[in-house]
Amino acid sequence: MFFTSNRITNIFIYQYRPTFAGLLIILAMAMSSITQAKPLVVSSTTMITDLVNQIGGESVQSKGLMGPGIDPHYYRATFNDMRLLRRADLVFYNGLGLEGRMSPVFYNLQALKPTYPLGEMLDPNQLLHSDGAIDPHIWLSIPIWLEVAHHVTDKLSYHFPAHQADFQQNFAKLTTKLTTLHQWVLDEIALLPKAQRKLVTAHDAFGYYGQTYGIEVFAIQGLNTEVEFGLAALQRVKDLVVTYQIPAVFAESTLPNRSINALIQGLAAEGYQLKLGGELLSDALAPPGEPGDTYSTMIEHNTRTIIKALR
């Protein structure tokens, strides 16, 4: 059988018309998804990611680099992290040296896209210092974290003005929630006699919490968990525990228990019974579904754990 060129063309079009139509539909869907895509906001720590979730709501796509239980002092960027950062429309990180190994990545990223170190946007007079270094653990004071939330709201509103009203409304709700939580912590700590307000932790992460809520904080390791604790530091804390008759010490979810176990065992050998008061959430939120998987429940968990062990 012979076909004319016109007939061949007609058969070809007839047979492949659904394919062409399908391609057009797929192309249209792709273009629609691009135009309707939410801006991507990438955050370093779980605490900042939670803050972006609370303020950004449904108006942004929020992604975090570090998951629950991750120590930001040690964290190194993965290949997937770099891909995510390249795609990001806006990037938030804590700064103040918290993300030590990630700091060069964020510094270089500032030349390519909006990248903000939230802790470095605060009034320097609000920042604590220890052994000549700035304490980066700003989220453990609710009033300070509310100021950080204000900066997040401003930056989201500036870069994505179409959603400004939503951001402002979400920030107002968050302010009410965290103000209530702040007062609850004050009331709970007030029930603890002043002589018992001594908090011993694995590393020096609770300075802002202690300053805000009237608790004296002692730590075996310094601000940076990359620096191992020494025998002198361990002995110093042992002496403080005995002097103040502290009944309990606390582990941290992002750190091994080596230093805390060494403290407990060392005092036990000297006849002093020191108990483990529980595990605090310092540098990361808890896994989803566990107590402390959001910022507000993190503060609640830490406060309940401290009060229960020291009361």
CATH 2nd-level architecture of the largest domain: 3-Layer(aba) Sandwich
Q: In total, how many beta strands? A: 10
The main sheet comes to: 4 strands, parallel
Low-confidence stretches: 1-36
Order of helices and strands: HEHEHEHEEEHHEHEHEHEH
CATH superfamily of the largest domain: Nitrogenase molybdenum iron protein domain
Helical amount among residues, as a percent range?
Answer: 40-55%
Alpha-beta content class: alpha/beta
Q: Roughly what is the average pLDDT, rounded to an integer?
A: 88
Strand content: 5-15%
Q: What is the count of distinct domains?
A: 3
Shape: globular
Query: Can you count the helices?
Result: 10
CATH topology of the largest domain: Rossmann fold
Give the termini distance in whole angstroms. Answer: 97 Å
CATH secondary-structure class of the largest domain: Alpha Beta
| Physical arrangement of strands within the biggest beta sheet | 2-1-3-4
- Please give the radius of gyration in angstroms: 26 Å
Topology, element by element:
Elements: H1 5-36, E1 40-43, H2 46-56, E2 61-64, H3 79-87, E3 90-93, H4 103-109, E4 115-117, E5 129-130, E6 133-134, H5 142-159, H6 164-190, E7 198-203, H7 207-213, E8 216-221, H8 231-244, E9 248-252, H9 258-269, E10 275-280, H10 295-310
Parallel strand pairs: 1-2, 1-3, 3-4, 7-8, 9-10
Antiparallel strand pairs: 5-6
Helix pairs in contact: 2-5, 5-6, 6-10, 8-9
GO biological process, one term: metal ion transport
Organism: Thiomicrospira cyclica (strain DSM 14477 / JCM 11371 / ALM1) (Thioalkalimicrobium cyclicum)
Keywords: Metal-binding, Signal, Transport
